[in-house]
Amino acid sequence: MVRLITQLTAKEEEMFRNMVRRLNTLVSTAKQLDVRLMIDAEQSYFQPAISRITLEMMRKYNREKAVVFNTYQCYLREVFNEVTTDLEQAKRQNFYFGAKLVRGAYMEQERARAVALNYPDPINETYEKTSEMYHRVLTECLRRIKETKDNSEDKRIAIMVASHNEDTIRFAIKKMSEIGILPEDKVICFGQLLGMCDYITFPLGQARYSAFKYIPYGPVQEVLPYLSRRAQENKSVLQKIEKEKRLLRLELWRRLKRGQLFYKPKG
């Protein structure tokens, strides 16, 4: 490996090499086990390095299918340009492109830092603007998927719609239907946190869409702050929990009235 960043100390360079080695081990194992590895996003001031490394992993391992996915935070003003640039790189260098689309989890930190260091706020002005950006990015990805499908090319783009927003899920399904992308094409999948929005995840699975539950795993002292950050950055989480509790109460009452307390699926 050629030393490109002379500002790194010998110790830092060793740490970087170790990180790349460990990441190669993780990705090669994921490829052997035929599972996907989605690399999460962080604050915008860290993200260029993370994305650069992730794209390098894609270039190396996504030769036959999308194994490695990069995460794109749609509350960032520049995310559309980043996604289209990365899509073009994947096309030019002939590797499969994997993207997990999220709204973003560091809004308060990002804005506070922008004010403290006197640079433009990188975050969209409103939640509605972020939703528009999410839908714009998703539409562009779906458009490119349709292009490859119309040209009878291999499915070289895979998208994870990681969202608890019902409007976004409906938007994705509607767009898929409009352009002829079927659930069984397996190029679009959906994901929600375990314990949240089951009323979204389960119907998706029943309708034959690929639906996943995200399980935070690790030491309690690390996992709890992670979950609290998401609740802090996304106040609508609490509203969704209230809705889910209401739906659960209604379902319990329905089953009690019908004598169907224990659900026994057929088959």
Q: If you had to describe this structure to a student in words, what would you say it looks like?
A:
This protein is an alpha/beta fold and 267 residues long. The chain has a domain at 36-217: TIM Barrel (Alpha-Beta Barrel). Helices cover 55% and strands 12% of the residues. It has nine helices and six strands. It has a six-stranded parallel beta sheet. Helix 3 (79-93) packs parallel to helix 5 (127-150). The chain is globular, with a radius of gyration of 20 Å. The model has no long low-confidence stretch (mean pLDDT 90).
List the helices and strands and how they pair.
Elements: H1 10-32, E1 37-39, H2 47-61, E2 68-73, H3 79-93, E3 97-102, H4 107-117, H5 127-150, E4 157-162, H6 166-179, E5 188-193, H7 198-206, E6 210-214, H8 220-233, H9 236-258
Parallel strand pairs: 1-2, 2-3, 3-4, 4-5, 5-6
What fold name stands as the CATH topology of the domain at 36-217? TIM Barrel
Mean pLDDT: 90
**What's the helical proportion of residues?**
55-70%
Q: Give the strand line-up of the largest sheet.
A: 1-2-3-4-5-6
Fraction in beta strands: 5-15%
Structural class determined from secondary elements = alpha/beta
Question: What value does the Rg take, in angstroms?
Answer: 20 Å
What is the approximate shape?
globular
Number of helices: 9
